[in-house]
Amino acid sequence: MAGPAQSESGPEGWHGTLPADCRAARSRQTARQCVGGRAALDPWRQINRFAYPVRVNADGVIERYINGAWSRPAVHRDRNGGACVSLKGKRGKSVSVPCGRLVMEGFIGKIPPATYVLHVNGNKEDQRLCNLRFAVSAECGRTGGRRRPTRPVCVCSEDGTIERFESVRSAARAYGVHERSVSGWCAGKWRTSLKGKRFVYADQMETD
């Protein structure tokens, strides 16, 4: 049985002209509702919050519909090394969206706040749906999602004793100084204001 007629103006929330292949895909999806308790998925899932149609598939492929044809946007890296694409929002402003988050949004729907998308195998190049999972902010920090790795700090005294701290923060707390001061001393940007103390990164001492 054929599904209900689809609007030529596109899905709800979309105010442009929907491509013919997207209209056909939506019609097929409506006609093939729940089989054995699970909804049959079309290869492509569409996202409608941009200035043009955007679609994703389970292989992690992202395409946008511009000038009458589907094309793949260029992939760039964010400051954490994650893969992102630049898409134009409905207000005309370009936004950078993580590829994995976009794929999950296409299949799962709107992602709740303070929820991140992690790669199961640790490979940020692998955007397949089976390689993505949700994580809360605390878990994201434990698995290295957005938290920068810490560098152990050594504090050398004139008498030859060496104190080792697991991070800049712990060294700053121990000596009652600001973290930026410890980072500056370790990087050699300025001299330490603590008499008889020298702050260095532990890995720098091992290479000296």
Quick overview of this protein structure:
The protein has 208 residues and is an alpha+beta fold. 25% of the residues lie in helices and 26% in strands.
Plain-language structure description:
- The protein is 25% helix and 26% strand.
- It is of the alpha+beta class and 208 residues long.
- It folds into 2 domains: 20-142, Homing Intron 3 (I-Ppo) Encoded Endonuclease, Chain A (Alpha-Beta Complex), CATH 3.90.75.20; 153-207, Arc Repressor Mutant, subunit A.
- Strands 1-2-3-4 form a 4-stranded antiparallel beta sheet, covered by helices on one side.
- A hairpin with a 4-residue loop joins strand 10 (153-157) and strand 11.
- It is elongated, with a radius of gyration of 25 Å.
- The termini are far apart.
- Mean pLDDT is 76; it is low at 1-41 and 142-146.
Q: What characteristics describe this protein?
A:
208 residues, alpha+beta, Homing Intron 3 (I-Ppo) Encoded Endonuclease, Chain A, Arc Repressor Mutant, subunit A, four-stranded antiparallel sheet, three-stranded antiparallel sheet, 6 helices, 12 strands, 25% helix, 26% strand, elongated, disordered N terminus
Strand and helix order: HEEEEEEEHEEHEEHHEH
- Unreliable segments (pLDDT under 50, ≥5 consecutive)? 1-41, 142-146
Shape: elongated
Q: Average pLDDT, to the nearest integer?
A: 76
Helix-and-strand structural type: alpha+beta
Main-sheet strand order equals: 1-2-3-4
β-strand amount: 25-35%
CATH architecture of the largest domain: Alpha-Beta Complex
Whole-angstrom Rg: 25 Å
Count of DSSP E strands?
12
The number of distinct helices, counting runs of at least 4 residues, comes to: 6
Sheet having the most strands: 4 strands, antiparallel
> What is the CATH level 1 assignment of the largest domain?
Alpha Beta
Helix content: 10-25%
- N/C terminus separation: 75 Å
Question: What do we call the CATH topology of the largest domain?
Answer: Homing Intron 3 (I-Ppo) Encoded Endonuclease, Chain A
